[in-house]
Amino acid sequence: MSDMSLELKNFQEDFIFFQSNQDNFRQQFLNKFVVIKNKNVLLSGNSIEELREKLEKEKLNPSEMVIEFVPEKETIMIL
Fold it and tell me: 52: buried, middle or exposed (CB in 10 Å: 19+, 13-18, 0-12)?
C-alpha cells in the first residue's frame, strides 16, 4: 500500500471513529473543536484559531488529521 493510500485509509478511520463516538465526544468536548489522529484526540479548543495556534506550537500538520466541531445535537450533512 502506498503512503498516500495509507494516509487516506487512516484519515477515513479517524473520521469514522469521530462519527461513531459522537455521544462520548459530546460528554467531553461539547461545543469545541477536536483534532483526531490514530483514533486519539490530540487537541481541543473553543475555536479554529485556537486550534491553529496549538497545532503550530506542537508542529503538527492539520492536513494529516481530522478536525471536527462537536455540536450539541447530531447534525446531518448533505453533500
Answer: middle
